[in-house]
Specification:
Blueprint: E1 2-10, H1 15-28, E2 32-37, E3 40-43, E4 54-63, H2 67-80, E5 95-101, E6 106-107, E7 112-113, H3 122-131, H4 148-151, E8 156-159, H5 161-169
Length: about 170
């Protein structure tokens, strides 16, 4: 079994609904089990800034899938939820990024793990650290908690994990 951390973000439509649909879709895949999720955080856009604020969370999954297959599942979920890629870092119904996969260092044409920009993004690090306060970068061995992005984040907790778990567990 493999452990992966996936960042999920949305800034189009009912953002919370988009996040929860992505979590449900991950969990319903036969090779993936969502074992934990962070609180939801609201953040301003990064890169392309002329768009609405995002809701973000991180999920921890156990999976029998190889990293490339997990990436395919994430992309399928994005497509099923209407993700359209027109502007780099632009608005999106949902975005799923594999942050970490075991302690692997993966460099392929379509997948880089650890995620190459996660150390710069508080909207990824803060939810990750909420679940795993002592987690370290698998390549450098340095604690993510020491990253400058965490110290000066501007990330605001929007919904606590416990409340989110209650919301997630409700039947549709």
């Amino acid at each position: 079994m493999n452990t992966a951390y996936i960042s999920i973000g949305s800034n189009i439509g009912d953002r919370l609904h988009q996040l929860m649909e992505a979590v449900r879709a991950l969990h319903s895949h036969k090779g993936v089990t969502v074992v934990n999720l962070s609180s939801v955080y609201e953040t301003i856009p990064v890169g392309y800034t002329d768009q609405s604020d995002f809701l973000n969370l991180v999920v921890k999954v156990e999976t029998s899938l190889k990293a490339q297959d997990l990436l395919s599942v994430c992309q399928q979920i994005e497509n099923e939820q209407g993700r359209v890629r027109t502007v780099r870092w632009g608005p999106r119904t949902v975005d799923l990024d594999i942050l970490l996969y075991n302690n692997d260092n993966i460099e392929s044409e379509n997948l880089l793990v650890p995620h190459p920009r996660m150390r710069e993004r508080a909207f990824v690090l803060i939810p990750l650290l909420e679940m795993e306060p002592l987690i370290e970068h698998p390549v450098t061995g340095l604690p993510f908690a020491a990253e400058p992005a965490v110290l000066d984040s501007g990330v605001v907790r929007w919904m606590e994990a416990k409340r989110l778990m209650d919301f997630w567990s409700k039947p549709e």
